[in-house]
Amino acid sequence: LAGPDSLSFDTALASGATLLSHFLWAVVLELSGLTAICRKALVASVDSATVALALAAGHATNDEELLQRCYWCLRATMCGAAGVPAAWLDGRGPVKLSNGSLSQMGVCSTRLQVLSGVIKEDLSAKRLRWLTPTDCYTLCQVHRIRSESGSYPHTYEMRLDHSDEVVMRALREDEQSSCRIFHRDADPATASDHCEDYLGCVVPNFWGTVFTLYDSGTDVDSLARRSKDSTQLPLQPRGVACTVGYETNLLGDCPRKVTVDFERGTTRYHMENMQPRWDKKLNSYALPFFGRVKKASAKNFQLVVDD
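Above: the chain's sequence. Below: its structure in token form.
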């Protein structure tokens, strides 16, 4: 392993057990080059069949990258629509989940709680990136992409004005469903709210008058009702990022009202849309948008902080 040809180790020809063995010895012998090669191969190969061994190796070596990959593999496997694999619970397969520990055929057993730091760091990083205010503002546009028939599902893209660069994507499957938000690299059609690229969701109330924006945390109560065993994995309960209120105008005799409430640190903010004024020449309500609006619509509005 310490020879000059160690960096030419062909991971494609190595079995999972060989990779793990080489990785552990490389860490012990402080062979940084071989460690990086084996880590890269292990991270790429982690799946539901190998995650127990990879988790044990990641915990033994305190390897953050490997632990992170194991967490998201477990998150997708345990919290997905199918729930925890039955073979993990009844002991029929090589991997067993019991009392908050994941084991592999009696070879190793690791407490899932060792992954608690992964989800805390992930949520903290996402809050820092997406929910931390700055001293400037960024002009963006939201583009809606309908399906071929024009019906749902709808895909949304938030793009920067100056470069048309996509910042994030979202998917809404039908009119009553929530709108799930993902990082720009994700495919909303195949991604789930248990993947690493998940950023949060917008959930409407029954009447469509209140919309709650949640962060990338998990709806733990809903998950527990669907699959109690899934909650053996460390999860961060989702938090409210902001609430949007919308007052409908069924008679059309007055402008619509939009409100936004959110907190930043210990300070609460309340925003309301600027009320348009009646324009006698246009015979309608009007509000200047300074070039930001291309077409007149009752859906256009501007938000200001209400002090």
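The chain has a mean pLDDT of 89.
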